[in-house]
Amino acid sequence: MTQRDLEDRIHDCGRRYVATIGDERPSLFNKSAWTGKLMDACMRNERFKVQLFRFIDVLPYLTTMDSFSRHLDEYFGSEESLPAVLKWGLRGLGWGGTLAKSAASAATRKNLELMARDFIVGATASETVARLHTLREQGFAFTVDVLGEATVSEREADAYVAGYRGLLDALGQAQRGWPALGGGSDTLDWGHAPRINVSVKPSALFSLADPADVEGSVHGMLVRLVPLYRAVVALGGFLCLDTEMRRFKNITFELYRRLRADPEFRAYPHLGLAVQAYLRESEQDADELLEWARRETLPISIRLVKGAYWDYETVLARQSGWPIPVYTVKAETDAAYERIAEKILRNHDACHLACASHNVRTVSAVAELAHTLDVPAHRYEFQALYGMAEPFRKALLKTTRRVRLYCPHGRLLPGMAYLIRRLLENTANESFLRQTFVEGVERDRLLESPRAVLARVAAEQSTRAPARESGGDAAFRNEAFPDWTDAAARQAYASALGAVRKAFGRTYALSIGGQEMGTGDREPSVNPANPDEVVGVVCQAGPDEVERAIAAARNAFPGWRDTSPSARAEMLRKAAAAARRRIFELAAWQTLEAGKQWTEAYLDVAEAIDFLEYYACEMRRLAAPRRLGAAPGETNEYFYESKGVAAVLAPWNFPLAISCGMSAAAIVAGNTVIYKPSRSTPVVGHTLHQIFQEAGLPAGVFNYVPGRSGVMGDALVRHPQVGLIAFTGSMETGLHILEVAGCTLPIQSAVKKVIAEMGGKNAIIVDDDADLDEAVPAVMRSAFGYQGQKCSACSRAIVVDAIYDRFLERLMDAARSVRIGPAEDPAYFMGPVIDRSAQERILGYIGLAQQDGRVAFASEVPKSKGFYVPLTIATEVPPDHPLAQEEIFGPVLCVLRARNFDQALAWANATRFALTGGLFSRTPSHIERCRRELRVGNLYINRGTTGAIVGRQPFGGVKMSGVGAKAGGPDYLLQFLDARVVTENTMRRGFVPFEELRSAGGTMHGQSDGGVRSGRDIQ
Ligand SMILES: Cc1cc2nc3c(=O)[nH]c(=O)nc-3n(C[C@H](O)[C@H](O)[C@H](O)COP(=O)(O)OP(=O)(O)OC[C@H]3O[C@@H](n4cnc5c(N)ncnc54)[C@H](O)[C@@H]3O)c2cc1C
């Protein structure tokens, strides 16, 4: 059959569907009912749509009528601005009285709950079974899915599986009374399909699933999936693995292969998985799955979908600097769907196809392809979502006879994420249902082949003017986040760890004025997970070396100062390129010397690259002198110049990023640097030296000078030839540096400039309507990520009373779930702290919590020599107690119970520090108040408090958290520069250059009658 004939048949088939659907509209688009009116309002008003979706999102938390009314007001305004649809059915009530208002709230709440019921088949097992029974009587098979997506702890994963077990029991009982669909005496629907069919979301099976740890994730999921599948098999049922976000896709596929090939289940064919056509890689995935099925001689089953996370994948990729993994033109997805469907149908002996779509064109194409390829009826079926497109599903049933409905089961609360996804999907411009039932797009156009649509799109694009190239420097772009779904990236990290370990134990000399300089005083730097492992032996500078380093930096200064800013910027770019080439290796050094987990370490290097490139761009921006004023007869030129010799005193917690940021800023601004790495991470510090060396930085511009703080710190800060000190570390050390630098010696020729990033005691406020699915993991990451050793870490969770118990319970469950061990193994969420003294100090604070408050949770720690401390959650600590006021710099979180939001805000502000802060709330007025009144350097709303990104979230605190402009922001470089102004009198005996007169005339035109004459007048 030719492609043309096939297209004709698809069109005929599509027309038949459309005729069968007739004039009936899905309830979603039926404007005589409330839901239809609501959808209509959404599609006409984007702002209303956003507000409504946000309101639906918070709805499950609005358990009292008071909070419901308050949110209704906040989201939609007063009566006048409340959209008519939300007042539906309330005519005549008036608004003013409390009674009327609460009646309105009650009605809206009821309507929204009813709408959720349209999509959710039942909240209890008996409700669900009864509804499924009705659907079966109508001729529909089902697959049932237990709602509950965000599993933040192992207890929640257990509860998710228990939900299935309860439901399976009920289904097992019920199926005895269910005759098979399609008639016949068989117990299988249509003679081949189990009557019980469940769909499972793998990510909900294991709270610690992580793409970096495929093996651990698959194992964690299998632990719960195997018994569940066993129960399904015992009932003669079918289990399908849903495919969710791309980050879990490969894990899901591996999970499928393991379960399918498990000797216990090999002979049982009823196991399926979903493939998403919108992913560019899905065609290859489908090939690999088919090949695997043949190789293993195991028939498989694929539910082919287009994909439900299009917006999420697109946004995530753009935020992370990844190529967009999904198609961006809708017809590309449609075309891919048809190609993959054809692939599967051609292999129908090895793979059963479930075509899941509400698109008449898609379904017609699959039906006609199957017909053309002589695929037996039992090798494919059609699926649709419960609650969507009722007329469509009825027409599908009439035509194809084998239709299965995907039926979500569960309570409203976990159902909201699902409901929002469905509403987004249906109201999207590209949605087939919207185009059919709302936009009334012409029938033949809807049935058009996606290939033809793509050809049209391509033709339209070719007639458009090409996009303009941006001139000059390429704009700054952040380095991409690591994508651990990529097996090559995981392999590269593992290999880098091996290579770095092989290089352990080397001796590192100082580098001064381009010369390697060994010293007799040496210190080992060890792996905090195993202090017996010596990462490197590092020469320590004494007073002589400090003097030599300062002399070398001074000598190099004039030449470097006079090097053009663009040449200096170019050096930074070269250094960035060198770091990028070695990104896995540089990260691996941090994992082994600083105890940083894979992602944390990789992002540290990425941030270092960002600093190099961002400051290079910034220097180019600042390099051009600015002309100030417009008075003729004079020129005023404003420009920047380097300051001199800078001492960079770096911390160990971001051993490359912060070292690199401070040094790069100083260097690109034309200063020369004496770099003292932290005593705990001198080998990582040496990698910075290597990067600058690879970039070809002239000798003496960057001097690597490790040494003891007691020997070097004050000597550098006090030295008359050091004009600039850039420091990041504790408040105590920062204040000491400020004091020492403030004492000016008689021989000193300049006042010292100190940039000091100091500590924090950062709070996250959890409001009574916070989304705990988001807040709990964010607090976990912010408080315990990299063992809480970040200045941005959350060390106080201030929780509003109404939600305190629920929050604490979920947080403790999440904490109980995590595992602690060496950072080099991605299975561990938390690793060792940096050294023994940190370990002892943190344990001291934990003792204080036991003494003065309550240790609500303290985890087990590995029995090893590593510097481990327990992940600790302290409660019942007064807000002014040292635990809630001092920087602990470890995995100790105080959870404070605040009476209300006002008190939470007051407590959040009540420390000497003001670095980062966070808020989880869905009350717009509270968000607004925090913006204004939570006075911290970096405020994060509805996300964690760590992970600031260069150029996007310039970072730095106020109060006792630091002095200086924000790192990675537009003001940072200015601190490393002196501004100068040169004013020249350009008038010679009354003659003023024509250009000046002209520009002055332009500026002054119309300002005063007696103003300076324009150049034209003089001519
Ligand atoms: C029974 C059943 C089970 C399902 N299970 C899953 C599952 O496990 N995992 C999952 O992710 N989804 C699942 N879905 C949802 C499915 O992926 C689709 O979101 C939904 O069916 C809409 O596709 P459609 O063919 O019905 O409608 P259409 O309107 O034809 O297609 C809409 C889809 O096109 C894609 N799209 C939209 N805009 C663009 C664009 N600009 N560029 C490229 N592509 C675009 C998106 O995938 C969007 O969902 C399931 C659907 C059904 C019916």
Q: What does the average pLDDT come to?
A: 92
pLDDT < 50 stretches: 91-96, 467-473, 1002-1019
Main β sheet profile = 8 strands, parallel, barrel
Task: Report the portion of residues in β strands.
Answer: 15-25%
| Overall morphology | globular
Number of DSSP-assigned strands? 31
Span between N and C termini? Answer: 84 Å
Helix content: 40-55%
Strand order in the largest sheet:
1-2-3-4-5-6-7-8
Structural class: alpha/beta
Radius of gyration: 33 Å
Written account of the structure:
By secondary structure, the protein is of the alpha/beta class. Helix content is about 45%, strand content about 15%. The protein is built from 35 helices and 31 strands. The strands form 7 sheets. Strands 1-2-3-4-5-6-7-8 form an 8-stranded parallel β-barrel, surrounded by 8 helices. A hairpin with a 2-residue loop joins β12 (about 520-525) and β13. It is globular, with a radius of gyration of 33 Å. Flavin-adenine dinucleotide (FAD) binds next to β4, β5, α12 and β7. The site of flavin-adenine dinucleotide has 31 residues, from β4, β5, α12 and β7.
Q: In a nutshell, what does this entry contain?
A:
This protein is an alpha/beta fold and about 1000 residues long.
